[in-house]
Design brief:
Largest sheet: 9 strands, antiparallel
Structural class: mainly beta
Shape: globular
Strand content: over 45%
Order of helices and strands: EEEEEEEEEEEEEEEEEEEEHHHEE
């Protein structure tokens, strides 16, 4: 079996390889896929562990959104036999506030990967940028040399307000896998938006709720851009739920190499 090599710094996986498969930040080509990590967001703030956070300030493990405060406990652990990597994240509300999701993110270079599998469906890389999202606990990548990478969502806690999902996404030169916690009913807020490079338009909250509750509204607009992919209009309805102070979301993901 190919050797699994990883660089883990400050409890984060920065880069790694499994035979010809590369993931994380790289020095082997022109494309930088970025470290594996954690993401969370509300209407205004977006948290990620790289340099792409928006309206977020870090103070150690404390995370300050524009309108709320949180604590992130994040850990990366290689297995003793160097055949797996486990990532866990607990995101705790310090002041309480709304969230649209919480995510553990893994990214792989597409070059050595033949296809991906999720919910018993097989996908080849077409640069579709579709979020193939399912209420499942496992995603697989199959390499061109007949090896397999299993990504499993081993444990999830949604505080009774969020449910676990995973998605497989083919974007540019990478395969992206997310383990996500997404809001479940009763929904506290609906953010119906149209976004582009120049501006973001937000539908008034009362009207957004009416559209969401109308026949077909949820089915059509729920994360529309994510479902349709690269050439879809940047229009979608995103639910948010509020966590009270002391409540937390937890994700634990293991990536196994065979």
């Amino acid at each position: 079996m190919p050797e699994l090599t990883t660089q883990i710094t400050d409890n984060r996986l920065i880069s790694g390889s499994f035979g010809p498969v590369h993931f994380g930040t790289n020095d082997f080509g022109p494309v930088n896929f970025g470290p594996w990590g954690f993401e969370a967001s509300d209407r205004v703030s977006f948290l990620t562990l790289d340099d792409n956070s928006r309206h977020v300030n870090h103070a150690g493990t404390d995370i300050n959104f524009k309108n709320s405060r949180w604590r992130l406990e994040y850990q990366t652990r290689p297995s003793q036999k160097d055949t797996a990597i486990t990532i866990s994240a607990r995101f705790t509300a310090l002041t309480g506030g709304p969230l649209q999701d919480a995510v553990i993110r893994l990214v792989f270079d597409k070059t050595a990967i033949d296809h991906g599998m999720i919910a018993n469906q097989k996908y080849h890389h077409r640069n579709s940028d579709k979020y193939r999202l399912f209420p499942t606990r496992q995603v697989q990548l199959h390499t061109r040399d007949d090896r397999k990478i299993d990504v499993t969502l081993d444990h999830a806690e949604g505080a009774g307000r969020f449910a676990p999902y995973m998605y497989l996404r083919d974007r540019d030169e990478s395969w992206i896998i997310h383990a996500r916690l997404l809001p479940i009913a009763p929904i506290d807020d609906i953010w119906l938006r149209w976004a582009n490079r120049l501006f973001t338009l937000t539908c008034p909250q009362k009207l957004a709720r009416l559209i969401w509750k109308a026949p077909g509204g949820k089915a059509i607009l729920w994360r529309l851009r994510e479902k349709w992919g690269r050439h879809a209009p940047e229009i979608q309805a995103v639910p948010l739920n509020i966590l009270k102070p002391g409540q937390s979301l937890y994700l634990e993901v293991t990536c196994r190499f065979h």
